[in-house]
Amino acid sequence: MSRPDHSRTPVLQRAHRLLPPFLRKRPRIDPRRPQSDIQGLVLHGYKIMDAACFLLLRIEEPSKARRWLREILPEVTTSSDKSSEQRSAWKTSLNLALTWSGLKALGLPQAALDTFPTEFQEGMPARADILGDSDESAPDKWDFGGSSGPAQQGELHLLLMLYGTTPKEVSSLVAEHRRRLEEGGLRELGSQQAARMRNAEGGIVEHFGFRDGLSQPQIQGFREGKHEAPDHTDAIKPGEFLLGYENEYAETPDSPSVPATLDVKGTLSPRADRPDWKEFGRDGSFVVVRKLQQNVEDFQRFLEAHKELAVGDTDERKKQWLAAKLMGRWPSGEPLRPGEDAPPTHARSEKHWIDNSFGFNEKDPDGYGCPVASHIRRANPRDSLPPSAELSLQVSRRHRILRRGITYSDDTGKGMLFIAINANIARQFEFLQQTWLNNGKFGGRYDERDPLTTHGAGRLTLPSQPVRRCVEGIARFVTMKGGGYFFLPSLRALEFLAHLEPKQAVS
Ligand code: HEM
Fold it and tell me: Cα of 379 to ligand 1 centre, how many Å?
């Protein structure tokens, strides 16, 4: 099977593009390897790529944009496994995702657009109430994807996600792609740079100083057991992260479809229940992007102001303890365990994986170690929800997301470009945000929200002996600055879009 060669240097990539289309490598989808139909961001996550740039594009001329899509198709990175040898030579990656208005602009007819879920059709700004995006985080103040400005929702059609191992790789890739936009009938509305931050050991960290990217669901049938640290639960059904597969309810929900007459090249599979329609969603997914600005100075000031409540023999240790209680893990990523008031130490030479196999029900039901209302325990309560560990695990498994976030730091500030992949935005990302992170009554608490990511969480109760501690006055450490809901089509679906016939497409 031929695959795009991402080890090519930009010069070779340019030379490659000068070849007539029939001589270029085209992505061939191997039916025995579904990974080859899935965009790379889903299964790879690109942890080895430390730089990225996301181009925010508008489709101005649909027919040119479809030709552009035909041209860049061979360059789209897929989730096909690469051998470790190939991986070391792997320098850049390219993925692309579309908003609902982007699919419309590209020519998908209304009948097909109507098969997308409501929250995706509405877009992120319309969901501000559910997401808690108010005041400073309101959509009219966003840098992109909001309700005003040049890259506002409706105008924003396409997200071109370019990753590279170094900023230099990304700059040449961006320059290369910018040159092709005009001819491709596309206009750049803006862009967002991002760069991974690493600690001395090379682990990925975020701006508040914590190890990140640790807890990820494994997916049944796809790269199971290939993760650094085993997840705390068995692999999750693929239908939670990919459309067209069985999910944790033992159902294969309807996914977006198109009338079969549009599929002139026979690219898509027919729907089993309606042969006059074709599967457009299969092997695709939804991507939630949120530019979350982190107010690191306020976070540090907060730790300083409240350190007397904390445990530790130095000011630094006290602040580290308090920060860890907000997050639910030590800054090193190690889990918080009852009775341990300092992070475990490991000899530098000792290679160890950070534990992700823990539950709370048996050893930490009341949150003496990891507070019930901390960020990670809200974001994934694991086995701790009533009435039983078994049911709790079942519920938690239905609300997992694949996290693909990457830090940024630019003249607008610094923060996290939060990127989540899920098959059902309302049931997964939005549920997490609304019912767990932003819910004042989560875990039987009263008026306490996620202390880290929500807007003015108020307070955090820390059960401890002999009396519980209550941290008051938790300010807003994170402000929402832009984002959107995107569809990440399969390679087949991209091919279909690229070949939509103008007479059928609504230009
Ligand atoms: C600036 C904002 C955020 C920061 C700095 C942040 C940081 C972190 C860190 C350091 C961890 C622990 C390490 C790990 O497991 O990878 C974590 C875990 C997690 N976060 Fe966030 N996060 C942010 C926003 C969010 C949002 C908005 C959501 C969902 C709506 C979310 C969902 C999760 C989930 C699901 C986990 C894994 C929990 C687990 O399985 O243990 N995070 N986050």
Answer: 7
Q: What's the CA gap between 79 and 92, in Å, rounded?
A: 14
Domain boundaries in the chain? 10-21+43-224+239-290+483-498, 295-482
Structure token digits, residue 26: 């085209």
Return the pLDDT at 340.
Answer: 92
Residue recorded with tokens 């070849």: 19
Ligand 1 and 206: CB distance under 6 A: yes
Please report where in the chains the tokens 């607008």 appear, as a residue. 412
User: Between the CA of residue 168 and those of 4, 51, 417, what are the distances in Å?
Assistant: 20, 9, 20
Q: Is 208 in the pocket of ligand 1 (CB under 6 A)?
A: yes
Q: Tens digits of per-residue pLDDT, 212-258? A: 999 999 999 986 655 566 888 889 999 999 999 999 999 999 999 99
Mutate to test the pocket of ligand 1, among 196, 215, 290 (most ligand atoms within 8 A of CB): 215
Residue 462 pLDDT level (bands cut at 50, 70, 90):
confident
236 CB near ligand 1 (under 6 Å): no
- Number of C-beta neighbours around residue 111 at 10 A: 12
Ligand 1 closest atom vs CA 356: 41
Quick: pLDDT tens for 395-424.
Answer: 999 999 999 999 999 999 999 999 999 999
Q: What is the mean pLDDT of residues 476-494?
A: 96
From first CA to last CA, the distance across the chain in angstroms is 35
Whether residue 338 has a cis bond before it, omega within 30° of 0 = no
